[in-house]
Amino acid sequence: MPRKAGIQKLSNELLKDILDHIEADPEISVSIDRRAYLSVESFRLPSPPLPSQAQDIGNFRLACRRFGELGIPHQFTRVATRFSRAGLQRLEKIVSRPNLAKHTKKFSYLIPFFYVEGRERVGELLHHANGDLQTLDASFFERKAEAQRSIVRSGEDLRVLKKAMMAFRSLQHVQILRLQDEADRSLLDYLHENDGAALRLVDLKWTPACTHALRTVGEALAEARSPFTRFSGPMMNPQSVLALKKGIPHTITVLSERLTCLELHFDDPIDLNARMKDLSPLFKLTFASARNMQAVHIGFPSSQPLDLDLEEIFHNIHWEKLRAFGVQAWRLSAEEIISLARRHSKTLRGLRLRDVQLKDGSMWKDVLAMLRAEMELLDWVSLRRIDYSSHFDELWGDSMEVPDYPPGGASDSDDEDDFHAHVDLGDDVFESEDEYSNGDSDERSNADTDHGPDANELALSPDTPASLPFCTCSRSSFPATADDLGDNGRFVVYQQRKFWEKWVIGRCPEHT
Prior knowledge:
two-stranded antiparallel ribbon, globular
């Protein structure tokens, strides 16, 4: 009898460890109550393995049936699909094999800008562009526009999405991301700089793309009775959500009942206050139905903080299991923040108040004193770029100097293996690749500022990590009360807010 090869004698546990050294276990994720969750799991682009890693995993799976089964989670736990013919065909192949689809826990849907019908005459535009777009190929855009029209009119995307959601019986997390390749970015930049005549020839819009993605994904999830519990949308459009409000209230209720985690960032500042006020009833319906909510984040453009009462969105709702809560770019009073935090003082472990601007008559020291005294379980607090509303207006006024949109973007290639894409996330909501390998950008910043090159990045680890040991020094410089924190009621500087983050949770500001 031929003797078994040595590796065949290894246990499944050891073989999984070997696979983990080729590529990190995709089933390991950051807990929703950690500061890192928003950056890593919700607003981060799907990161494919390096080509060599993908080949090694593929070769491992080809060795024998046992190895084939062990390697499936590394390839299909997280599935990312582009809105394109090739992307939908690949998705359908995956979900047609139950042994693969049963492992999928996270689904990322990557959506490009949609061409406005009748205004996709890229060839004419390039002819009149005087060489500014000479590197672009008109046929590339024409094929893409035709494919978009064909997919939408035929309903091919909805058909495949319904099939996928029915097959993904272990699905936990759904993510809708905006996608953009270099050619699209060049075209959009040109249209932005040469609006008028150029827009009569070619126009690309995010609103119809976002609306279509939300409608089709929502319908597919509801019809499949998907077990998903988490939804992330880092580039949501208020108009898209408003368009859905009239059409699918029952679907929204059904889906909301399953939610334990919801993270939305609205990127369009036009008529923001009015549009979000119009969405207030929908938020009330959603949040009232989501009784099991454990993590919530609602954000807006840093350049234009929302000026609406907090409870216009959250409606005094109390979630018994809430562990992490975050808002970004909002003009609030101290009492609004205190009231919401107090409702969840028995459960909240993480609090993000990024880009929050306190209104006249409020002081940050009042918020900080309450958080320190009453938040029993708070492990971390993020106060990045907090300030006072009047000082924010003095600094920025109506300018767009607070950057929301990066020069980067994402590949929209139909080649599913060439996934070096950068999903198009605003600088407010996404961190640089350097930060993934270097930890907390605040700690490594040489600028000592919340308005420098690193100001728009999200740190991977908590700004005030719970794992740090308590200091045993005499803490002679540790303020006893909030009155000693140096809050002048006019502005907040970088050094202050870092100091305050540690003080709130009882960390020594000198030795942590």
